[in-house]
Amino acid sequence: MLVGRRYLLALAPEQTDKAERYGAICRAVWNTALEQRRRYRTRGAWINYNEQSRQMAAAKKDPDCGWLAEAPSHILQQTLRDLEKACKTHGTWNVHWRSKAKTQPSFRFPDPNQIKVERLNRRWGRAKLPKLGWVRFRWTRPIGGTVRNATVGRQAGRWYISFCVEDGVSEVAPNGLRPVGVDRGVAVALATSDGDLYDMRFATPGERSRLRRIQQRLSRSLRTHGRTRWSKRRDALRAELTRLNARIRFRRTDFAAQIANRLARSFGLIAVEDLRVKNLTASAKGTVDAPGRGVRQKAGLNRAILDKGWGGFLLALEHAARRHGAAVVKVNSAFTSQTCNSCGHVATENRKSQAVFVCVACGHADNADVNAAKNILAAGLVVTGRGGPAVGRPVKRQPPERLVA
């Protein structure tokens, strides 16, 4: 089974400069190759990885493109492979450019024969990478397998190395434990059908106030400097904002990983709603001819949804389920928060408030998120019992029971 191992790097100053340079070269290769693919598509033609790799090898011999030879050839080829995969998956016109201001530098060494990892002592290890040499990293956990590739990237001003490792563990058999339903909410991040509520404040009030002040100063720096947009003061503000957001994001990631592992160890089937977070957090501004309504309220709801990390939790849950023998089932989210789990009555009036659910038909009262989690569990059991797809109506049906005369 392929797993990931991520460690904090301690690069020397010259290694940091090289890493920045390699990241810039990979970004230039990505953007140039993407532009070439789009121009080919405009003419009705197509270019693939093999042709672009051959042209890049020829460009290295050109004196005007000699800077391409500074980076290891394998990371440039891997950039072209990643671009081809992205274009095949999303379409050439839907792949984004890599911006110098918004994209963190990152590059991957795909050849395991050129990667060597050693442990120096209890706290430190080192890895040998092409043209970077030996780089030291904090040994926070064992590698636990054979290294397949290594990715070096910068995040919030700090450099990390991630190893893709083959741990030698085969596919885990189903654990056979009982099922559970999980509802993702705004007031409470996660609620289970057993009545457990999981929530955490990822940013303290002081951090939120500091975040708001930095954003205000950053906005004023644009109006003050005019054309001198990328001033040193603005760069310092952006770096401070990045570090603060990274601290909040790390807490959110840690919370999702802990709860996901707890659920995957305790249950055999985990039913969740099939939520399209990108569509749910779309702006309500509308168009010039048809302006949207409740734009400020929708913006606040979008921030609350993104703050809870719905997508990150689902990704962590799928990874944890793979290692602990649990199954994750996605069900249709329609009316799960308005349906009474006791009698099945569906009405908007059932949801008295964000936390209170009282059925207007039978009087059943429960926590609103827990009631929704029970409905999600029931839908997940129906899907798995019929053997149909996880989302939408199943095609198969259980055979009817024979009538005994």
Write up what this structure looks like.
The chain is α+β, with helices and mostly antiparallel strands and 405 residues long. The chain folds into 2 domains: 2-166, no CATH class; 179-199 and 250-386, 2-Layer Sandwich (Nucleotidyltransferase, domain 5), CATH 3.30.420. The protein is 41% helix and 19% strand. The chain contains 9 helices and 14 strands. The strands form 3 sheets. Strands 2-6-7-1-5-4-3 form a 7-stranded antiparallel sheet. Strands 10-9-8-11-12 form a 5-stranded mixed sheet. A hairpin with a 2-residue loop joins strand 6 (146-155) and strand 7 (158-166). Helix 4 (205-225) packs antiparallel against helix 5 (232-266). The chain is globular and about 80 Å long.
**SSE order in H/E notation?**
EHHHEEEEEEEEEHHEHHHEEEH
Distance between the termini: 53 Å
Structural class: alpha+beta
Shape: globular
Total number of beta strands: 14
Q: Biggest sheet, in brief? A: 7 strands, antiparallel
Q: Which spans have pLDDT < 50 for at least 5 consecutive residues?
A: 386-405
Helix content: 40-55%
Summed up, the domain count is 2
Portion in strands: 15-25%
Enumerate the strands of the largest sheet in spatial order, edge to edge or round the barrel.
2-6-7-1-5-4-3
Give the oligomer, counting copies of the same chain as homo and different chains as hetero: single chain
Mean pLDDT: 88
Number of helices, counting only DSSP H or I runs of 4 residues or more: 9
Write down the Rg.
Answer: 26 Å
